[in-house]
Design brief:
single chain, mainly alpha, two-stranded antiparallel ribbon, 2 strands, 78% helix
Length: 454
């Protein structure tokens, strides 16, 4: 029954938000309360999961969101994004979504997905008019979503990629050899298909942006547009003004790579922590803007960032509450019991089964990594007798685990808030793009099975 109750809770939350225009925080909390009580968690247990889930997500991403938004506000006050967009417009123009999707998929998987969206969202909003004044932002949003998660599941050292490879006992080098081209192709093909959908009137500015967003010539304007500009700092070379982003990226990537190599260094571990790395980036940006605007000016910039941060944190935290209530409902164990991997299934059927199990687990649980890990736990014990190379089954799990990232994921609400989308707009971008990516990557995995069999 927990599957039915979870479906009711999720659909009710979506209906309340989209159809009846009820605030996401209220809608998600109502869904949490219904699901907790309906699945026997009781009043005390339901409250515990709501507050515990909120706290867990805040511990995981709260500082990342706060630091990231403040860095974005400070960079905006330096004219960094406008100058970067001018260069992008000259060099790649309308090809930016492909460049973004491909880069996120193959270069940045070592960076946590939460950090990627926090740092990439301001650039996507600023550069949207240079891509397309009508559908630039939704196209970039879809490219951002599929780029992040194609790298996350297919490209080592993406967390889900490393976890699935380990559980399926696939050497990381072998997984990377197959996963990198699949991840890159998935990101680029999905970005193209998503563009075709948008060009057919799929996007509606009236309903798909946040109701408080101001859209001018295809660009979302927010409170950071009203802050003073540090003219003296804006004259610095663009590479110097990008240091608040570049330094954290280098620190986090270094920490991830060192960790992957099983090398322990307390300094690198400390500096490579995402929270510390972003704080260092914030300090760099703060010092730059303080020199240009003084104490009052930098205070005004940070205040605009604080206003933006509050709503994003609250909605993201309540999204984490829903995930915690779903986890406590016993959904994961029930789904495990529904499946039993067939050791004698044909190759393509085995791939489809692995894909379907991972897709359903992710859709129900709300976590790409948990869905993939649970699917690998179900299939792993019999993969050796399936007659299929384990790397192929691992890739099939990775493919399915991307399917339909939606309202039971805290990432969904981060994405929505950072890109100034409505819930409907986030379903049209992030949910649709990850679903397309899961479908696009499936035939590529089947093709990889033929290569592995040679």
């Amino acid at each position: 029954m927990e599957i039915l109750h979870s479906a009711i809770a999720i659909l009710a939350a979506i209906l309340l938000i989209i159809r009846f225009k009820i605030d996401p925080v209220i809608s998600l909390l109502l869904a949490c309360i219904y699901l907790g009580l309906a699945t026997g968690q009781g009043s005390e247990g339901t409250i515990k999961q709501i507050t515990g889930g909120f706290g867990e997500i805040m511990a995981e991403v709260g500082l990342l969101i706060g630091f990231g938004v403040l860095i974005g506000a400070l960079l905006h006050s330096m004219g960094t994004f406008s100058d970067l967009v001018a260069i992008i417009a000259r060099r790649v123009g309308g090809k930016l979504p492909y460049a973004m999707a491909g880069t996120l998929a193959v270069i940045f998987p070592s960076i946590y997905v939460d950090v990627q969206v926090v740092l990439a969202a301001p650039m996507a909003k600023e550069s949207a008019p240079a891509v397309d004044r009508r559908i630039g932002l939704p196209w970039l949003a879809g490219a951002l979503g599929i780029g992040i998660f194609a790298g996350y599941v297919f490209v080592v050292p993406g967390l889900a990629a490393v976890a699935v490879a380990g559980l399926m006992e696939v050497p990381l080098g072998t997984y990377l050899l197959y996963g990198l081209p699949i991840g890159l192709a998935t990101a680029l093909i999905t970005t193209l298909l998503f563009r075709l959908l948008l060009s057919r009137g799929f996007w509606n500015d009236e309903t798909d942006y946040d109701e408080d967003a101001r859209i001018v010539d295809g660009r979302v304007h927010d409170e950071t547009d009203d802050v003073p500009v540090a003219e003296s700092v804006a004259r610095l070379p663009l590479l110097v003004r990008l240091l608040p982003i570049l330094v954290p990226l280098v620190l986090i990537a270094t920490g991830a790579i060192v960790g992957l190599a099983d090398v322990s260094n307390p300094v690198i571990d400390f500096l490579g922590d995402a929270n510390i790395a972003l704080f260092i980036g914030l300090l760099i940006a703060f010092v730059m803007v303080r020199r240009g605007l003084g104490a009052d000016g930098v205070g005004s910039v940070l205040t605009s960032g604080f206003h933006t941060t509050g709503e994003i944190l609250l909605v993201t935290g309540v999204g984490g509450s829903l995930g915690a209530v779903i986890a406590e409902s016993g959904m994961q164990d029930t789904l495990k019991e529904l499946f039993s991997a067939d050791a004698n299934a044909p190759v393509i059927l085995s791939i489809l089964l692995a894909w379907f199990i991972a897709a359903l687990l992710h859709f129900a649980i709300g976590s790409v990594s948990v869905g993939a890990i649970t699917a690998a736990g179900i299939i792993g014990p019999v993969v050796g007798s399936m007659g299929v190379d384990p790397v192929v089954i691992a890739l099939a799990i990775a493919s399915g685990a991307m399917f339909a990232l939606h309202v039971n994921s805290n990432f969904f609400w981060m994405f929505r808030g950072l890109l100034d989308l409505s819930t409907k707009g986030t379903l049209k971008t992030l949910t649709l793009a990850t679903s397309l990516g899961a479908v696009v990557s499936l035939p590529l995995v089947i093709l990889a099975s033929f290569v592995a069999a040679l």
